[in-house]
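Students often ask why inverse folding is considered easier than folding. One informal answer: many sequences map to the same fold, so there is more than one right answer. In these notes we will look at a single instance of the problem. The structure comes first.
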């Protein structure tokens, strides 16, 4: 099956597109930002917010305010990029600055990070960025051989918890057991295979990370509390930043655990010229915000979308996985996983249709001419640029059936479409380096998602879930799981 759109685009052919003034406005001072915030969170929801403005201006590039707005943001005014052609401007470090824009138009207090700016908040032009990211890349390389055995160990415990909860309650909340698994894997990986249960954290590691991240991200979410009026929630979450002291004790426990048990990792950081204290705070951020935080959103999304494929997809995945593992002598190896074309494509399709980090921000370093499919626009130096990846990777001029989950989309000739998958803050065909802002764990994330499916379908034939939107991701509950008639393990 070909997954190319019938109106496939040659990006190099757009040089003669007409120049158009960027449409849209920011409304009246202060109140314009408040109105857009209310529409975004409560009146419309984020997808409809962007869809209606795009239709109103007949453009995938336009001006608007982005939350949280007054008091928290210094300036909420952004230029929005919604299509697959304009969006990659945000990856061009020569034109766009990424200093302190990880969370958008505001930055949490550095109190949350031990007084340091973690690598994710640094622009690639800052000298410390290369040092920190180079250290991260060296860790990924160093731990390469540990990924599969450590993940297999963590995920086995997760499935045991899933079965126990299903047996006890007839259903099982996936998010909680997935979070526990993700934290266990990340902590063991960075802390010399130490179990978090053998540290001061005990079983509270995921809770500590969740509570530490919540005040940082509160301005960007809604809780959906039925009995709390919207204006009260808006006042509590989107008007003032929550202070660090509320979660200081949880963060201190995380810092102490990594400081004590990630000794070899921190020794390597010092050899790279990074102060030990700064390295530890960066390690907590890498483990919590980047790794655990990403898995917290991504793994439930993966299960949700694979569940939506029904028994037909499950049978195809199980057959591919079990046949390949059998041919490889019964072992789950990187070589075996790389041969599973449908499994790989399924993971990429989940990353396309529900990217774990849907927002990208950057500030124009110079005057920039950016192109959409049908127009060219001038962005002035210093203007904030915002990309909504959820629309960019569902661009109907790039993808056939863009709103549908098509597991085989990236098989065969469909692999050429990977250059339009942007979840890692770059094209999927690019590679992370010290000179760019692409996710250092790009390959690891894809591998872990594939491993999760491999381990799942080595144990189960098919399954059903219920899902609902929750904060920045999905809440997933297993309703049924069916084991093979004969034991595949």
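Output (designed amino acids):
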């Amino acid at each position: 099956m070909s997954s190319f759109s019938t109106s496939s685009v040659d990006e190099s052919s757009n040089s003669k597109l007409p120049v158009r003034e960027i449409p849209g406005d920011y409304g009246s001072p202060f109140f314009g930002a408040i109105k857009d915030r209310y529409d975004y969170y409560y009146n419309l929801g984020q997808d409809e917010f962007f869809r209606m403005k795009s239709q109103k201006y007949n453009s995938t590039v336009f001006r608007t305010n982005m939350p949280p707005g007054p008091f928290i943001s210094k300036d909420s005014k952004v230029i929005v990029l919604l299509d697959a052609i304009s969006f990659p401007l945000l990856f061009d470090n020569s034109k766009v600055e990424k200093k302190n824009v990880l969370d958008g138009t505001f930055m949490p207090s550095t109190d949350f990070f031990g007084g340091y700016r973690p690598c994710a908040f640094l622009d690639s032009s800052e000298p410390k960025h290369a040092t920190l990211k180079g250290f991260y890349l060296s860790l990924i390389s160093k731990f390469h051989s540990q990924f599969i055995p450590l993940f297999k160990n963590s995920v086995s415990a997760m499935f045991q918890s899933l079965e126990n909860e299903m047996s006890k309650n007839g259903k099982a909340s996936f998010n909680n057991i997935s979070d526990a698994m993700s934290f266990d894997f990340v902590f063991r990986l960075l802390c010399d295979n130490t179990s978090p249960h053998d540290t001061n954290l005990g079983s509270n590691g995921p809770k500590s990370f969740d509570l530490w991240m919540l005040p940082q991200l509160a301005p960007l979410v809604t809780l959906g509390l039925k009995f709390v009026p919207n204006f009260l929630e808006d006042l509590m979450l989107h008007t003032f930043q929550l202070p660090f002291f509320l979660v200081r004790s949880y963060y201190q426990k995380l810092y102490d655990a990594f400081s004590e048990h990630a000794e070899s990792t921190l020794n390597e950081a010092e050899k790279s010229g990074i102060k030990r204290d700064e390295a530890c705070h960066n390690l907590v951020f890498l483990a919590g915000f980047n790794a655990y935080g990403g898995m917290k959103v991504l793994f439930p999304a993966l299960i949700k979308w694979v569940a939506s494929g029904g028994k037909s997809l499950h049978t195809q995945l199980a057959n591919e996985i079990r046949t390949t593992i059998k041919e490889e002598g019964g072992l789950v190896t990187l070589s075996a996983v790389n041969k599973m074309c449908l499994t790989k494509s399924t993971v990429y399709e989940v990353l396309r249709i529900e990217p774990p980090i849907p927002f990208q921000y950057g500030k124009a370093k110079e005057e920039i001419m950016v192109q959409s499919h049908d127009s060219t626009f001038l962005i002035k130096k210093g203007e904030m640029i915002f990309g909504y990846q959820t629309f960019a990777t569902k661009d109907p001029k790039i993808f056939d059936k863009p709103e549908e989950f098509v597991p085989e989309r990236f098989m065969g000739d469909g692999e050429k479409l990977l250059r339009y998958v942007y979840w890692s803050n770059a094209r999927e065909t690019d590679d992370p380096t010290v000179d760019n802002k692409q996710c250092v764990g790009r390959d690891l994330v894809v591998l872990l998602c594939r491993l999760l499916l491999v381990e799942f379908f080595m144990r189960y034939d098919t399954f059903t879930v219920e899902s609902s939107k929750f904060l920045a991701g999905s809440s997933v509950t297993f309703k049924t799981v069916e084991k093979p008639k004969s034991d595949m393990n």
